Amino acid sequence: MERPTSSSSSDDDDDRQNLIEQNDRKLPTPRSTTTTFHIADDDIDDSNHRHHQQLRRRFTSLKLNDLFNKRSFVLFAIFLPLFVLILFFTTDIKALVFSTSVSASPFGSVSDKLRESELRALYLLKQQQLGLFNLWNQTLPNPNSTSNQSNSPQIPLLEDFKSAVLRQISINKDIQQVLLSPHRSGNSTESDFRDFGDFENPSLGDRCGILDQKFAQRRTIEWKPNASKYLFAICVSGQMSNHLICLEKHMFFAALLNRVLVIPSAKVDYQYSRVLDIEHINKCLGRKVVVTFEELADAKKNHVHVDKFICYFSHPTPCYVDEERLKKLKGSGVSLSKLEPAWVEDVKKPSKRTVQDVQSKFSTSDDVIAIGDVFFADLEQDWVMQPRGPLAHKCKTLIEPSRLIMLTAQRFIQTFLGKNFIALHFRRHGFLKFCNNKQRSCFYPIPQAADCITRVAERANAPVVYLSTDAAESEIGLLQSLVVVNGKAVPLVKRPARNSAEKWDALLYRHGIEGDSQVEAMLDKTICAMSSVFIGASGSTFTEDILRLRKDWGSASLCDEYLCQGEDPNFLAENE
Questions:
Q1: Which CATH architecture has domain 230-400?
Q2: Facing residues of 210 across strands?
Q3: Which residue, among 314, 233, 222, has the nearest Cα to 268 in the 3D structure?
Q4: Which GO terms of type biological process are on file (predicted)?
Q5: pLDDT 10s digits, 424-446
Q6: How far lies 7's CA from each of 11, 12, 18, 20, 69, in Å?
Q7: Is the per-residue pLDDT at 93 higher than 90?
Q8: Distance separating alpha carbons of residues 175 and 195, to the nearest angstrom
Q9: Of 113, 433, 489, 494, which residue is 20 to 30 A from 183 by alpha carbon distance?
């Protein structure tokens, strides 16, 4: 359709004007009007009658263009702004809009919100009550204990007490927020409700500050081994985390016996060189205290013989070594002497042992000795478990991830997480039966776990959570939907599959160790250990190794805790 030209538009205007004039002159009176409503009156003046007929014709033929002639337009332009100004100064527009919006909303919406908030607040008050009762019970002496028992008053440590109090303060703040939420309008801010109480008390300081590990008060010993005497490490129980704890205890034994520690061969155990920097340990001690199996084989000209096999554990099997592991040792070129238990010791009920016990039972002049798996050994636990361990060294920790894994973890954090993030080890696979066999189960329903995570996220004020888990996607999806702080979902971030467009994992790919399950597990540990706050899985050695790294690195937080620490699952399945 073509656009009309200016000349045609002008012609149209002329036609309309002519049409109006013609209508003014020739408009007939409607028949229905003259027959039905015409009142014949012989006394009416003819001139008045004609004037009346003209007015009717004018109003009948009135068109929109008549309103917009020059005189009408000028009057309209003058009076419209005056009318708007008068309306503005005499009417409360805000109140009018607000009342309109309120009247348009459903009748029961406000009352429903109030009721929902009250129920939520009652639930939180119940949680706070249970938490305070638990704290109170921990501070009371056990009535069943005798007065001469040194550990009868079950008084919590100061840091545990402070953490529990902060948790209750956090719940109290949640209650305030819930009760205030129905009274908030879309444009209101938290500052509008200051009259209801302080939301942040400056006297509390940093609620999730760094925990003081008191490194200066460490109790240590020097590890100065005889270069020709060796302790052959053997670790059997569990996965990589168990083996790392076993290696750490072997290091303490080697220091007590003045021996060099031999790291197992990859033919018998994990390939530790992929996840650990073995030479880092020697640098930290300033001397050769650890060698690989290959280095020992070179020193012995490929004739590695364990001269004495003194077993720390006698039950359920000597040295806690099965036949399959003995075959692997022999297959790697190691010849073994007879397994001889040092004492009666069961892995299920280990006895507390001292330095003197070990030195008296395991000291020998033989070149190469082995003592078997010592993961369950209870030797000077307070000494061994202190931050940065029992050995004197110049580093933060001796057993730590390799340099490649450390750099990859840092690059991942810079890419996805940033400085302030929570790390969560959410163990699920095979954990249900394991936890339910414990005195207090550590396997929590997803909604309860989400509530615990939310409380920590609110307390830590962290925008994101790094998720290290073996959970199914169905569980992860539900968990993500329930972790909400101040009305906003807190993202749960997992390491994504390899993408060539992303360069944070390029080092692993370049060195050919990407996709290795042990490398990925150590990378997860490292990211978790670098977090602002860590939530672990009670009973998991994976979690315990992360906590060890955090203590040694000085990154442990006042808010670090096990998932739903101090709580029982709100539902518990029966055992088989």
A1: 3-Layer(aba) Sandwich (3.40)
A2: 557
A3: 233
A4: fucose metabolic process
A5: 999 998 899 999 998 889 999 99
A6: 6, 9, 17, 20, 21
A7: no
A8: 16
A9: 489
Strands 260-263 and 230-232, sheet pairing: parallel
What pLDDT was estimated at residue 24?
Answer: 44
Arch. (CATH architecture) of 402-562:
3-Layer(aba) Sandwich (3.40)
pLDDT band at 33 (very low <50, low <70, confident <90, very high): very low
Amino acid at 573: A
Contact at 8 Å (CB) between 457 and 535? no
The pTM score is 0.68
- Contact between 495 and 468 (Cβ < 8 Å): no
426 within 8 A of 384, measured Cβ to Cβ: no
Which residue ranges make up each domain of the chain?
230-400, 402-562
Per-residue tokens: 528 = 């978790």
- Residue whose pair of structure tokens reads 């005497």 in the numeric block: 229
CA distance 271 to 269: 7
Mean pLDDT of the chain: 80
Rg (C-alpha) for the chain, rounded Å, is 41
Pairing between strand 378-379 and 484-485?
Answer: unpaired
pLDDT of residue 99 exceeding 60: no
What's the sign of the alpha-carbon dihedral 497, 416, 449, 483? negative
DSSP state of 512: T
d(CA 531, CA 534): 6
The answer to whether the beta carbons of residues 399 and 240 sit under 8 Å apart is no
Q: How many helices (H) and strands (E) does the chain have?
A: 21, 17
What is the rounded distance in angstroms from the CA atom of residue 529 to the CA atom of residue 142? Answer: 36
- The answer on pLDDT for 506 being more than 60 is yes
Q: Which residue has the tokens 């009920």?
A: 349
DSSP-based helix, strand, coil % in the chain, nearest 5 = 50, 10, 40
Q: Who wins on pLDDT, 17 or 492?
A: 492
Provide the angle, in degrees to the nearest 10, between the axes of the packed helices 446-460 and 473-482. 50
**304 within 8 A of 335, measured Cβ to Cβ:** yes
388 has a pLDDT exceeding 90: yes
Q: Does 402-562 match 230-400 at the fold level?
A: yes
Alpha helices in 391-472 (DSSP H): 403-412, 431-436, 446-460
CA distances from 221 to 60, 488, 550 (A): 113, 51, 22
Helices 517-529 and 240-256, axial angle in degrees (round to 10)? 80
DSSP assignments along 302-337, one per residue: T-EEESEEEES--BSSGGG--HHHHHHHHHTTEEE-
State how far the Cα of 135 lies from the Cα of 137, in Å rounded to an integer.
5
